[in-house]
Design a protein that fits this description.
Helix content is 36%, strand content 21%. The protein has a single domain, classed as 3-Layer(aba) Sandwich (Rossmann fold), CATH 3.40.50. By secondary structure, the protein is of the alpha/beta class. Helix 6 packs antiparallel against helix 7. Strand 2, helix 4 and strand 3 form a beta-alpha-beta unit. The chain is globular, with a radius of gyration of 17 Å.
């Protein structure tokens, strides 16, 4: 989850001046809630990489009897979450997964986090997600779709805003559209010292899907904003996985 200087997370996502981007950002949260509503009996829920805590507000309304952990490692985003959740009961904002007991949660959400991490960060996150889930627990993992037709549509949008940037170069966009996203992505550091990729372009959800299948049982996949389209021309893909052992 990314925070640019002088901008709140909300301004960069669901309050973006573009009505299209704003709609997609709000819709992905609603679609994740709908996927989670299949597990209405969940009583201990984690939002892994929760940014400003907006999704935790939706969780608190959807699961009125659940205890919710809002995990966000970046201090500036965490402070936004604390403020955003000030009037919401049952949500604990934490800066480390060590604050959450192992095997304690039956439902976990991780949305637009893994695409920002280098391979070692993805592995660490998968390990932590597995540790937090109880046996039979379910994780809803959402990532952007950055290949094929989705990459082309997003590329046109980005070129209109910042032509020439890494994710707005015609060559990089065409490679991703052909199913071969550029392998070298710019690397920076989150304020906590965590290495991260700012741009979504260059991320490929296909290897992640294979990795998750080795660690969990895949329950289903779903796209957003049009669920039945799957990974075809959608902006977001959700992997719903279960820890069986």
């Amino acid at each position: 989850m990314i925070l640019a200087p002088m901008n709140s997370y909300a301004d960069l996502t669901r309050n973006d001046p573009s009505r299209v981007k704003s709609f997609l950002q709000r819709r992905r949260l609603r679609d994740a809630i709908r996927l989670g509503s299949d597990y209405a009996k969940a009583r201990r829920i984690v939002d892994y990489g929760a940014a400003d805590g907006e999704f935790c507000k939706l969780l608190a309304a959807q699961f009125p009897d659940a205890t919710i952990w809002c995990f966000e490692p970046a201090a500036s985003l965490r402070s936004e979450a604390v403020e955003n959740l000030r009037a919401v009961d049952r949500v604990a904002v934490v800066d480390s997964v060590s604050s959450i007991p192992s095997g304690s949660c039956d439902l976990l959400f991780c949305m637009e986090v893994l695409e920002h991490l280098p391979p070692e960060g993805v592995e660490k996150s998968i390990e932590q997600i597995r540790r937090l889930l109880q046996t039979g627990g379910v994780a809803v993992i959402g990532v952007p779709i950055e290949i094929h037709g989705s990459a082309l549509l997003k590329g046109f949008f980005r070129m209109g805003r910042r032509y020439g940037a890494f994710d707005a170069r015609p060559g990089n966009i065409l490679r991703a559209s052909a199913g071969f996203p550029p392998p070298s992505r710019p690397m920076s550091e989150l304020e906590s010292g965590l290495p991260w990729h700012h741009e979504h372009l260059g991320f490929d959800h296909r290897p992640l899907g294979k990795r998750l299948r080795r660690e969990f049982t895949l329950v289903r996949t779903a796209g957003s904003p049009v669920r039945w389209l799957g990974a075809f021309l959608n902006s977001e893909l959700y992997f719903v996985v279960r820890k069986d052992a």
